[in-house]
Amino acid sequence: MMKSSVSNCPVPSEQQPLNEYEELKSSWLFRDCTLNLREYITKIAWIWGISWLVAFPVAAASFAPHKQSAQFIISSIAGSSVGVVLVVARLYLGWSYIRDRLMSPIIFYEESGWYDGQNWMKPQEVLTRDRLIVSYSIKPIITRLKMTFAGLAVLFVAGTIVWHLV
Predict the structure, then answer these.
(1) pTM listed for this prediction
(2) Are 111 and 87 in contact (CB under 8 A)?
(3) How far is it, in rounded angstroms, from Cα 81 to Cα 70?
(4) Residue 17, SS3?
(5) Range name among 18-22, 64-68, 146-150 with the lowest pLDDT average
(6) Taking the domains of the chain in order of start, what are their residue ranges?
(7) Model confidence at 9, in pLDDT bands (50, 70, 90)?
(8) Would you tell me how many other CB atoms lie within 10 Å of the CB of residue 1?
(9) Where are the beta strands (DSSP E) in 62-155?
(10) Mind telling me which residue stretches traverse the membrane in this protein (predicted)?
(11) What is the DSSP string of 118-138?
């Protein structure tokens, strides 16, 4: 049934949204979003820890740890959170791009280079399949990433309040 529509697809294999989705889902950074909540939080904590290795010396150079310990701790936590924000932003942009390609009824593709772009109208069965993938696989990932952003925003606000109280 779907085989005939997909086999008649003029879009090169590597530019077909379903193949782009499968590739993204299996790539080392993006597959972390598909893990269960505990494993996902563990991966985010590892990213934070690696970012802390950079933020710690900067915070120590800015605030003497033995004299201004509260400012040192808050600034090292905030600095290491910047790395997490950058990674989560990259994840969000990647998954959003794939979501948009799957949801779109028309796919732009390049046949052999940047100068010869074409559009392909998805058949209804392909569009339905792609939209089901978005609904059941990609929307939960994007929701998780939005919640991660919200959690980071809450931590930044809390850190700012504590900074002003200290």
Answers:
(1) 0.89
(2) no
(3) 17
(4) helix
(5) 64-68
(6) 23-165
(7) confident
(8) 5
(9) 106-110, 117-121
(10) 44-64, 70-93, 147-165
(11) EEEEPPHHHHHHHHHHIIIII
Instruction: List Cβ neighbours of 10 (8 Å cut-off, separation of 6 or more).
Output: 109, 111, 118, 120
Eight-class DSSP state of 1: -
CA distances in angstroms from 28 to 6, 25, 74, 121, listed in the order given: 27, 8, 31, 31
Task: State the Cα–Cα distance between residues 154 and 15, nearest whole angstrom.
Answer: 38
Q: Three-state SS for 9? A: coil
> Which residues contact residue 111 at a Cβ distance below 8 angstroms, ignoring those fewer than 6 apart?
10, 12, 117, 118
**pLDDT tens string 50-77:** 999 999 999 999 999 999 999 999 999 9
SS3 breakdown of the chain: % helix, strand, coil, rounded to 5? 75, 5, 15
Angle between helices 69-103 and 124-133 (to 10 degrees): 160
**Dist CA 111 CA 107 (whole Å):** 12
Instruction: Tell me how far apart the alpha carbons of residues 14 and 29 are, in angstroms, rounded to a whole number.
Output: 19
